[in-house]
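Please fill in the sequence for the structure shown.

STRUCTURE ENCODING:
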């Protein structure tokens, strides 16, 4: 039984689409196995073999050897079986080749459809395997068309999707344009593998630097963190494994040539390159550049930083519409609170003055209390003598005397319980939309947890007091 025309079609499919001949042969055999079962009986046992020399599909039907035949599809009488194999016995199975199955045109068409389906499935698996291992890499293709706002990109052997949300704002592509993107994900769908690209991912920025800077390629310079607001501004943190090489200078290039190539690819997106440090406070200062930082307090337990700056540095630290602090938060992976130093010192002064209403508390004692988070007479009134003795490092009788005067003043309503509150001292706050850190090498200190009736944020602000001299 010759299917030379079908054989030529399968051969062409195998060559053009790079499918292993073995896969095509298995598809042929399975297709005619299904066709044989439909034609000769589903309960029968069949086997198909593709004969490459004759370009034939050989079909065998297996039957059990019996003395009395009850089901001719499944059984064969012993005498007829010995004609095929002289050594056969009752209970054995013999394979009978169906010489002329007389497949109809519909049967052949069914087999053809099954073969094509198997070839398509094999092609999808090949494409999936080929591009799956290229995930997280840079890839280049050609824009072909738009589908529901997404750009279909021709990669040669396959098509990829560049979703509208993954395109840099104000960026427009026309059919035929070359597109460079980050291969973010490859997933298998009912329609085959779907290759998803991105030009807004921070990793696209990372890959551009890897391609542009030879020192990154050879491992001399490492990219530790990246953060972007696509089309507007980005920050990237780098460090060098060679003390003789400046990582920032290497990434910028001679007269800014290297970074400028990347800026052009990102449609003019401004890029800040900062030096990475394992010391979080040092790195946070670099991440918030060009602002000058007065002091930083770390709360590793809650993943936040309280950053104190002079009033003339507030706008630089916060950035246009909060952009600088947002990018710094993403770069560091920490929530960042920008605090006015003037407002903080004003808060300290008012708290000190409030505590000085108690005559047994002098200025040094008031400062110690404020630095320990006791910000008002009300806070002092809630303390025990043992707690006060430990904070002030005084005898227990002195602590008891201070608390006795405080309680009496509160009962007689001769003091203000709390200082007059002014405006919020936190000028801006940014929670990272994602953590830009590429690995877990950054070192963080973990302070001991303390039980307190105050909120964590208030407690951290109070701890700031230790960094300032009170006037």
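FILLED IN BY: designer on duty
SEQUENCE:
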């Amino acid at each position: 039984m010759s299917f030379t025309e079908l054989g030529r079609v399968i051969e062409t499919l195998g060559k053009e689409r790079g499918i292993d001949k073995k896969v095509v042969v298995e598809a042929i055999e399975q297709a005619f196995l299904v066709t044989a079962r439909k034609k000769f009986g589903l309960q029968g046992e069949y086997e198909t073999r593709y004969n490459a020399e004759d370009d034939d599909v050989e079909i065998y039907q297996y039957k059990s050897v019996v003395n009395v035949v009850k089901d001719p599809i499944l059984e064969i009488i012993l005498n007829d079986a010995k004609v095929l194999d002289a050594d056969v016995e009752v209970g054995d199975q013999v394979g009978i080749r169906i010489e002329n199955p007389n497949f109809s045109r519909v049967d052949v068409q069914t087999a053809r459809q099954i073969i094509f389906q198997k070839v398509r499935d094999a092609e999808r698996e090949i494409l999936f395997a080929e591009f799956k291992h290229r995930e997280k890499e840079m890839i280049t293709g050609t824009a072909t068309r738009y589908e529901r706002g997404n750009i279909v990109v021709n990669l040669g052997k396959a098509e990829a999707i560049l979703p509208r949300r993954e395109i840099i704002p104000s960026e427009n592509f026309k059919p035929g344009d070359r597109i460079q993107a980050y291969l973010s994900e490859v997933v298998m769908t009912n329609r085959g593998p779907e290759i998803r690209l991105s030009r807004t991912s921070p990793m696209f920025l990372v890959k551009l630097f890897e391609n542009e800077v030879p020192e990154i390629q050879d491992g001399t310079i490492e990219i530790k963190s990246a953060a972007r607001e696509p089309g507007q501004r980005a920050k990237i943190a780098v460090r060098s494994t060679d003390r003789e090489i400046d990582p920032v200078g290497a990434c910028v290039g001679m007269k800014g040539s290297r970074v400028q190539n990347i800026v052009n690819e990102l449609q003019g997106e401004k890029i800040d390159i900062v030096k990475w440090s394992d010391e979080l406070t040092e790195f946070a200062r670099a991440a918030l550049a060009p602002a000058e930082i007065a002091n930083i307090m770390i709360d590793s337990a809650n993943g936040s930083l309280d950053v104190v700056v002079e009033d003339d540095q507030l706008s630089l630290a916060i950035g246009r519409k909060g952009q600088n602090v947002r990018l710094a938060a993403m770069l560091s992976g920490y929530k960042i609170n920008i605090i006015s130093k003037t407002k903080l010192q004003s808060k300290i002064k008012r708290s000190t003055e409030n505590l000085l209403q108690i005559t047994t508390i002098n200025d040094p004692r008031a400062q110690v209390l404020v630095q320990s988070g006791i910000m008002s007479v009300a806070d002092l009134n809630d303390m025990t003598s043992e707690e006060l003795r430990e904070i002030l490092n005084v005898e227990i009788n002195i602590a008891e005397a201070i608390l006795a005067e405080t309680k009496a003043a509160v009962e007689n309503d001769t003091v203000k319980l709390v200082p007059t509150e002014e405006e919020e001292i936190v000028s801006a706050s940014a929670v990272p939309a994602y953590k830009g850190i590429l690995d877990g090498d950054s070192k963080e200190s973990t302070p001991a947890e303390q039980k307190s009736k105050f909120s964590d944020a208030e407690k951290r602000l109070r701890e700031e007091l230790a960094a300032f001299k009170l006037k």
